[in-house]
Specification:
CATH topology of the largest domain: Dna Topoisomerase Vi A Subunit, Chain: A, domain 2
Strand content: 5-15%
Radius of gyration: 21 Å
Strand order of the largest sheet: 4-3-5-6
Number of domains: 2
Largest sheet: 4 strands, parallel
Number of strands: 6
Structural class: alpha/beta
Helix content: 40-55%
Amino acid sequence: MEQQIAPLARLAEQFGKLPGIGRKSAQRLAYFTLNMPPEEAKAFADAIVNARNTVRRCDVCCDLTDHELCAVCRGAKRDGTMICVVEDSRDVMAIERTREYKGLYHVLHGVISPLNGIGPEVLCVKELLRRFEDGLVREVIMATNPTVEGEATAMYLSRLLKPLGVTVSRLAYGVPVGADLEYADEVTLARALEGRRAL
């Protein structure tokens, strides 16, 4: 019979709630945390509580921040005529790493998924529509993931935004740089052909 230490089991159970963490990984993390020096364990716990209490959504774009406005919305050199719509804050970081995009963002915090009970009212759609009241925005780039839900969300938002007189575009998808065509699946190749451009 396996011996259960209740506090350790509860700690492992909490780690097990994290995405990508299975039962064995959760146990390893629990034991690792237990073996931390007390000051490191306290700093770890304090960082979680502090982040939970201070990180909030930007008043404009709904990205995560610890201020009223995120760094992008505060940036004076950003192009206010373009908004790139993404699913979550990690997508903003990915696009920012390219150092190519100079416009603004809008974070939906999810995608429309009727099977999971997620409709447009759960997402930050009202906040997005509010950004068109001043008439400055000229283009919206849909950068949701190329999944069924991501495509449905992009189409839904496109139908809402086109009557406002803005250009709605979609990220091009296709063959990654350095890949061999023979290994690409049919959907990826079809997207690459659709998204082709002149040289």
